[in-house]
Design a protein that fits this description.
4 helices, 152 residues, 2 strands, mainly alpha
Amino acid sequence: MKRLTTEEEINFIKEITGDPEKNNIISSIKDSFNILQVRSQLLLGLITICLTITGFSGHRLAASGVPARIALFTGVISVLISALLLFFGPLKIRWITTYKTDSFDETVFKMLKRRDNKTKLYHIATGFLIVGLSSYIISLAVFLARYSILNP
């Protein structure tokens, strides 16, 4: 795909908006990128909560033993990997009207491939976040077992 100059992008936008069928296709693709953006921001919010909780209570969880430390470490690393995948995947901004190939169909194909790649990274990031949250829960369970159940 060729990166367009501002003048070329203006012409491409005129081409798209001048043809209702092309406009509908581009709008559909734009909507799918918006969905990925919003859902990625939701995951980023959960990541922020996890890291904030770790900052406040991570040291207490880690003090409850080696299993809790391992689970907490796994959780932090998994959550950070999830954040990196989101930053370099779905949250990376690239305007859909700034790139174009020789034909409209090929341009749409490349846009859909880009959307699919971002979707894959979103799903992988979600998997790492689930591993991270599960590890946090394991760490908390170890902490509670050590200080609540074993020492009433």
